[in-house]
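Hello again, I could really use a second opinion on something today. My current little project is about how a certain protein chain folds up. You're getting the sequence in one-letter code plus the fold written as tokens. Here's the protein in full, and shout if anything looks odd to you:
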Amino acid sequence: MTDSTRLLQQHSFVELGARQRARALLDDGSFRELIDPFERLVSPWLAKQGVVPQADDGVVIAKGTIEGKPVVICAIEGGFQGGSMGEVGGAKMAGALELAAEDNRKGIPTAAVLLLETGGVRLQEANLGLAAIADIHAAIVDLRRYQPVIGVVAGSVGCFGGMSIAAALCSYLVVTQEARLGLNGPQVIEQEAGIEEYDSRDRPFIWSLTGGEQRFASGLVDAFVADDISAIQQQVHALLHKGKPEQERSSRYAWFLERLSQVDTAQQIEPAAVRSAYQGDRS
């Protein structure tokens, strides 16, 4: 039984770890991990603060092919420190994207898939993590000039903070019902604005505003798929085959700012109002 066949029998993409997710998307036998756990490249800061580090710092970098085409996959392990980005993991991700862009300049058409399960910057590494995320942003913008950069947000960890900006910079975004996507996480909003404004324990309310289905209906992501390995594989394949979009979502910032300026912030936002805010001509 091949690796791909074994993974497909599990069906759920969300239940896979970062390394398994990367392997599931690549052509069978093409998975090659870069800076794997045996390199022992761990965060130098976590142990000093009483946190047990992880040998890959929660980021898996894999090269391989999808339908025979070169691809680099950056997969974040949401189970390690909430998928937070620190100095080492962020450098791995930024470096991989930078090398992919360099491959394109050398005539090797390498695309990228980002498996985003992250709360954003790792608080224990603060400015170092923020600097790494900024490098990731720059690398995405560079690479997407040549080949699509596809972001996938699948699990309940979601994608928040500076890494939600990375998601917004992707050429395409794929989400599931379980996914969440937003700049600030629910607990941060509750802490700053109060429970009356945003109850972080009200899961139906949270998913109704930042969940995958809502983000798709609002036009902020490109595909809404079931939590199924085959479905996500097929969607990623379709977007890679589609190539670069005619216009990057992030280039339409003026349109989004104009729509947001019309939102009444004196009232608690409702899901229907969120969808309405993003309806209309997006040219």
Q: What stands out?
A: The chain has a mean pLDDT of 93. The CA atoms of residues 8 and 229 lie 6 Å apart. The beta strands are 32-34, 59-66, 69-76, 111-115, 149-153, 172-176, 223-225. The first strand starts at residue 32 and ends at 34.
